[in-house]
Amino acid sequence: MKKTSLFLFAGFLAVTAPHRPLCAAGPAREARNDRVERAIDSILARLTPEEKIGQLLQYSGRWSDTVVNRGITLEERALIRQGRVGSFLNAFGTGITRELQRIAVEESHARIPLLFGLDVIHGFRTTFPIPLAQAASWDPAAVERSTRVAAREASAAGVHWTFGPMVDIARDPRWGRIAEGAGEDPFLGAAMATAQVRGYQGRDLSDPTTILACAKHFAAYGAAEGGRDYNTAEISERTLRDVYLVPFKAAVDAGAGTLMASFNEIDGVPSSANKHLLTDILRNEWKFDGFVVSDWNSIGELLNHGIAATRAEAAQKSLEAGLDMDMASDVYRDNLPALVKNGKVSAKILDTAVRRILRIKFRLGLFDDPYRSCNPETEKSEMLTPSHIAAAREMARESIVLLKNQSDLLPLRRDTKTIAVIGPLADNRHDPLGPWKGLGEAKNVVSLLDGVRNAVGNSASVLTARGCTISGTDTAGFGEAVSAARCADVIVLAVGESMDMSGEAGSRSTLDLPGRQEDLVHVIMGTGKPVILVLMNGRPLAIPWEAEHVPAILETWFLGLQTGNAIGDVLFGAVAPSGKLPVSFPRTVGQVPIYYGHKNTGRPDTSNEHFSSRYIDLPSSPLYPFGYGLSYTTFSYSDLTLERQSLGTADTLRANMTLTNTGQREGDEIVQLYVRDLAGSVTRPVKELKGFQRVHLAPGASAIVPFSVPVASFAFTGLDMKKKVEPGSFILWVGPSSVGGEQTTFEVVER
Ligand code: GLC
Q1: pLDDT at residue number 66
Q2: Does the CA dihedral 331-334-339-345 come out positive or negative?
């Protein structure tokens, strides 16, 4: 197939805009950007209004159809030929994408390449752990690697654009989409957002193994009242800026080419028509030069929200607010032509939106090579390679969090003779794929049972029984499970959620183990045998009984294709667990929302004072705190020192901490640095994560762990709504989680 350089065809030099620089653009980069803008000027000059509006329209393919046609209709093919389609989602595979791209660039007057988008959330065909699990690794480099693999596989299948990373801060685990993000903390969330954008987009988006990132859901989607998906976010501008926007700003600074507007309203204004969000903050303050896509029918849903009386009004409000592309609804398609024709929407507004989309298509190199992702040989060779599978296993290992290990029950002894792997998630290859599994297939999953069998080989016998289903009420299987337990030296008991109990529209009103699993845990514990509880879930679960009575507990989330091998590696000590919780685990749903970075209030619950902010029937503390996770060894923290106790607002705080491996095994510790600003023009959180480092130590070894933290990172939105560092006294902690650790103090002064 000839490789048409469209701009040569259109009489212009083919240019590919550079990936948005992480650093300030140099002269060469600016020259290239100028050439792109001039090229876009020329395209705009020759497009009809219908063709311009066409660039704002995204149509959806259909998952259920064969790879060949993805259900793209003849009518949609005709619309492409008329230059009235800008993008497709859910249309992937080199065959269909090449066919549709050919129509767009060789049969239409507009000759503008299509953009193919897909939800590549935690892997394409090689399914990695869900994002919440990856965040539990606290290893941005590993997350970048896993996202790079996803980009290589997706781009090989004709995909240009993923609707990820999902960077919504979530502090209510009833909200099922907590599974898709990096948890409760802005600093960890920003680190994970940056890693994923870099993994997807690489150093230069015109590299055909990269895909365009889309930070979503902009914004404050995770602040849904009641943890009910799509619900209202009633938060202050200050909380919006200092909590929920932080990972989005990090994604934009990392060069994310697109954002997706969220379904929810913020303080009365739905994000899809929120000019303050999409233009004042995103474009005018952050200088974002990519484009914003709606979330599915979020433009049409402005009528449900009650801020548009007609679909025409919805179209006008969204476009004028700064929402450039309409995903899969027909609101822009049906209403913009008349709005533009009768002058209700200015040509300038329309051209601005088209320009943003064309700029990204240039940045992707699509004008230079519209068939960049259409090689069927690469599509075959790139999928599920041994190196990709190995990366999935490594990421899964690091995502596992050891919550309890009484009497060092773990790692299991190699001379264990009989192991019973019990529970509805033991011999289960479907649910460990997790929500938004994309093209992940159960046939490629290593189940927990498979993984234990792989680990022991012929050295032990492995029994199994399901006991019950995940959500059913039938306990008829308990007997078989108890029998298997009685025959075993040790029991690995796998309980948790099904993949559809979290993710989109997956909000739960409780955090308990679903179905009769709690009873299953009790009867298995009743055998008196040693039990290792393996949790597989998309959100924190309230497991106070288990925390008290079960000797060992592993939080494994949904680990994707290599579930069983990764858990087996940890169970038998091939690797020590190193994960730390990216989200607090409540004792009960009644504590929600519960997160470590809360405010102190006027009556903190730090004493036995009756009249303080507390419950009369439960401690205020979580079951397991943010940043918590054990290892197979132990670590001690000592000699916390600061280079200076007094720092100017433009200085860098330098701290040293000595970490010692006081146990018998090597291990990784994720050392965390928190600060508290004791007094400000507005109240401040009792703790804020401002640094973390993974340190590997042999038994008995020590290391000095250095931290360098810019004082500027202590900035917050003050009483005057301006973001700045305020002088004052601070406490600093360095420790193993958001609780405890060594502490010291320092001052920030004006200078
Ligand atoms: C869904 C989700 C969004 C996803 C989009 C496309 O409604 O909210 O995260 O990217 O539609 O599938």
Answers
A1: 63
A2: positive
Q: Do the bridges between strand 646-648 and strand 716-717 make them parallel or antiparallel, or are there none, so unpaired? A: unpaired
Give the per-residue pLDDT at 25.
59
User: Homologous superfamily of 635-749 in CATH?
Assistant: Immunoglobulins (2.60.40.10)
- With a 6 Å cutoff on the Cβ, whether 504 touches ligand 1 is yes
Residue nearest to atom 2 of ligand 1 (CA): 295
Task: Please write the tens of the pLDDT for every residue from 135-190.
Answer: 999 999 999 999 999 999 999 999 999 999 999 999 999 999 999 999 999 999 99
> CB under 8 Å to 232, separation ≥6 — which residues?
224, 225, 264, 265
How confident is the model at residue 11, as a pLDDT? 35
User: Which residues, listed in sequence order, are joined to residue 693 by a DSSP beta bridge?
Assistant: 671
Identical fold for domains 392-591 and 635-749, yes or no, is no
Instruction: Using the predicted structure, report yes or no on whether residue 14 has a pLDDT greater than 60.
Output: no
Residue 28: pLDDT band (50, 70, 90) is: confident
- Whether 600 has a pLDDT exceeding 60, the answer reads yes
The answer, yes or no, to whether any atom of ligand 1 lies below 6 A from the CB of 229, is: no
Pick the residue whose CA is nearest to atom 12 on ligand 1: 119
Say if ligand 1 is within 6 A of residue 296 CB.
yes
Q: What is the DSSP letter of 212?
A: B
Ligand 1 site, residue 295, Cβ cutoff 6 A? yes
Q: Is 401 helix (H, G, I), strand (E, B) or coil?
A: strand
Evaluate whether 732 touches 708 at the Cβ level (below 8 Å): no
- Testing ligand 1's pocket by substitution, the residue of 502, 504, 507 carrying the most ligand atoms inside 8 A of its CB is 504
pLDDT of residue 30: 85
Contact present, 4 and 106 (Cβ < 8 Å):
yes
Question: pTM score, two decimals?
Answer: 0.96
Atom of ligand 1 nearest to the CA of 90: 12
Instruction: Using pLDDT thresholds of 50, 70 and 90, give the confidence band for residue 65.
Output: low
* Minimal-distance CA residue to ligand 1 atom 8: 295
Could you list the active site residues? 295
What is the average per-residue pLDDT within 430-443? 96
- The answer to whether the CB of 218 is under 6 A from ligand 1 is no
Contacts 24+ apart (CB under 8 A), 473-479: 473/515, 473/516, 474/516, 475/516, 475/519, 475/520, 478/519, 478/520, 478/523
| Ligand 1 neighbourhood includes 177 CB (under 6 angstroms) | no
How far away, in angstroms, is 503 Cα from ligand 1 center?
Answer: 10
Q: How far is the CA of 2 from the centre of ligand 1 (A)?
A: 35
Question: Mean pLDDT over all residues of the chain?
Answer: 95
Distances (CA, A) of 706 to 175, 187, 398, 739: 37, 18, 23, 20
Domain residue ranges of the chain, discontinuous segments joined by +: 392-591, 635-749
Instruction: Provide the residue type at 499 as one letter.
Output: M
pLDDT tens by residue, 623-667: 999 999 999 999 999 999 999 999 999 999 999 999 999 999 999
Spell out a b/e string for 261-282, using b for 16 or more CB atoms within 10 Å of the CB, else e.
bbbbbbeebbbbbbbbbbbebb
Under a CB-based contact definition with an 8 Å cutoff, are residues 108 and 79 in contact? no
* Span 323-349, average pLDDT: 97
**Mean pLDDT computed over 440-459:** 97
> Domain 392-591, what fold?
Rossmann fold (3.40.50)
Share of the chain above pLDDT 90, in %: 93
Q: Pick from 296, 326, 437 the residue to mutate for probing ligand 1's pocket: most ligand atoms within 8 Å of its CB.
A: 296
Element (H, E) at 493: strand 490-496
Using a 6 Å cutoff on CB, does residue 153 contact ligand 1?
no
Q: Quickly state the pLDDT bin for 64 (edges 50, 70, 90).
A: low
Residue nearest to atom 10 of ligand 1 (CA): 163
- Strand-pair partners of 402: 554, 630
DSSP 274-317: -HIIIIIIIIIIT---SEEE--TTTTTTHHHHTS-SSHHHHHHH
